[in-house]
Amino acid sequence: MRVEPLLRTLGGRIRALRDEHGWSRRVLAQRTSLSERFLAQIETGEANPSVASLLQIARALDTSASELLAAPPRSRAVALLGLRGAGKSSVGVELAKKLRQPFIELDQRIEESAGLALQEIFILHGEDYYRELERREVEKLFPREDSVVIAASGGIVTNRETFDLLRAHATTIWLRADPGDHWSRVVEQGDHRPMQNDPLAMDRLRALLAERAPLYARADATIDTSGKSVAAVVAEIAAWLKKKR
């Protein structure tokens, strides 16, 4: 196992055990004499703890360092990434059928949790509140949902902690598409708002894709969807997963 996946797995396990104890990160910091910031970095796989630090954490969580480092059962969760119009929902539904796994639309979970539509969440509470709900819903998914297909929200990659948590528990796949395909797919869904009263809408879309491309590229795999049918994309993902597993 490479170092980065190992650290992500270690961090996810520490977070899960902390949640089982019902502790905040501050409580774990007090019980280990480690800083909250350092623990946050460990839980997101950004820090490589020393043996001494690992022992402190293990003792506080009533486990052993070897248990924390043990290879976990291989998760079969798959998370699809990309901007709106990438095909996450349509591909996700069919991929879930092919893999015989449940399908989860993360934005739908967020709406149910808030009791509001996405647009209302942004208007009434702002993006920061939405990102907090997003993080909570991802935390709820794992480690309970280890065999599921998830259509992640388009901006999940902009929140490092949430994205790292998702990457620690699921195989992440970026559904990459050209700006024109994103545009046409949204319009085909019956939403003409992107082009209304905004002559620079396509330029903004191109800029957003360019800005987020390096973040989406952190996914485990990238699948181009432009010019391909849903069935073709699903078959390509399934073949890649079979080879990987």
Describe this structure in words.
The protein is of the alpha/beta class and 245 residues long. It has two domains: 3-69, lambda repressor-like DNA-binding domains (434 Repressor (Amino-terminal Domain), Orthogonal Bundle), CATH 1.10.260.40; 78-244, P-loop containing nucleotide triphosphate hydrolases (Rossmann fold), CATH 3.40.50. 59% of the residues lie in helices and 8% in strands. It has helices at 3-21, 25-32, 36-43, 51-60, 65-69, 88-99, 106-114, 118-125, 127-141, 160-169, 179-188, 201-216, 230-244, and strands spanning 78-81, 103-105, 149-151, 171-176, 221-224. A five-stranded parallel sheet has the order 2-3-1-4-5, with helices on both faces. Helix 1 (3-21) packs across helix 10, helix 7 packs across helix 9 and helix 9 runs parallel beside helix 10. The longest helix is centred in the N-terminal third of the chain and has 19 residues, at 3-21. The mean pLDDT is 87.
Q: From the helix content, strand content and strand pairing, which structural class follows?
A: alpha/beta
- Amount of beta strand: 5-15%
Please, what is the CATH homologous superfamily of the largest domain? P-loop containing nucleotide triphosphate hydrolases
- Reading off the top of the CATH hierarchy, the class of the largest domain is best stated as Alpha Beta
Q: How would you spell out the order of helices and strands?
A: HHHHHEHEHHHEHEHHEH
Q: How large is the radius of gyration?
A: 19 Å
Total number of helices: 13
Number of strands: 5
What is the strand and helix layout of this fold?
Blueprint lengths: L2 H19 L3 H8 L3 H8 L7 H10 L4 H5 L8 E4 L6 H12 L3 E3 H9 L3 H8 L1 H15 L7 E3 L8 H10 L1 E6 L2 H10 L12 H16 L4 E4 L5 H15 L1
Parallel strand pairs: 1-3, 1-4, 2-3, 4-5
